[in-house]
């Protein structure tokens, strides 16, 4: 049986990578979601595919120039439709709370920070800290198209097995050709 992932949430029905898009997943029978994460200047991990605000918010500019306090003025929904005016750009913490509420399984894609390695390290540390709040019933994939960042995530985290990008054969569990499931067993 194939596993369906809600890519950036139910992004055909709600603005991508928003809490509104992820909240729709259980209603449509989807238990797996893919989420993109990046980091702000102050280390706050946010849910965003792009490293700029231009495409999916009412603002322009780089994520890397913002702090947590700036999030309250960002509308990540009005570009999609009037029903989503005022939809916030979510933090990873808010996303994890929603995942726990709906008992979703997640593929967290760590974005390659175009602001440099220092930002990538902040992002990795923030994701590791955020995942500590993930309920123990959710399955987890961690992916990244930057193999150095993925290796650093593995080094810093206590997860023994992590995705291996670009597998030739699909994962037997999810059907994915690009990664294999991570287990959340603590190393000894």
Question: Which SSEs are present, and which pair or pack?
Answer:
Elements: E1 5-7, H1 19-23, E2 32-39, E3 45-47, H2 92-102, E4 105-110, H3 117-131, E5 140-143, H4 147-156, E6 159-161, E7 183-186
Parallel strand pairs: 1-2, 2-4, 4-5
Antiparallel strand pairs: 2-3, 6-7
What's the architecture of the domain at 5-39 and 91-186 in CATH terms?
Alpha-Beta Barrel
Query: Structural class per helix/strand content?
Result: alpha/beta
Percent of residues in helices comes to: 10-25%
Encode the helix/strand succession as letters. Answer: EHEEHEHEHEE
Give the integer mean of the pLDDT values: 88
Task: Say which CATH homologous superfamily of the domain at 5-39 and 91-186 is assigned.
Answer: Phosphatidylinositol (PI) phosphodiesterase
Oligomer: single chain
Which outline best applies?
globular
Low-confidence stretches: 164-168, 176-188
% residues in beta strands = 15-25%
> Using only CA atoms, what is the Rg?
16 Å
Q: Give the biggest sheet.
A: 5 strands, mixed
CATH topology of the domain at 5-39 and 91-186: TIM Barrel
Q: Find the count of extended strands (DSSP E, 2+ residues).
A: 7
- Report the CATH C-level class of the domain at 5-39 and 91-186: Alpha Beta
What is the count of DSSP helices, taking H or I runs of 4+ residues?
A: 4
Kindly report how far apart the N and C termini lie.
34 Å
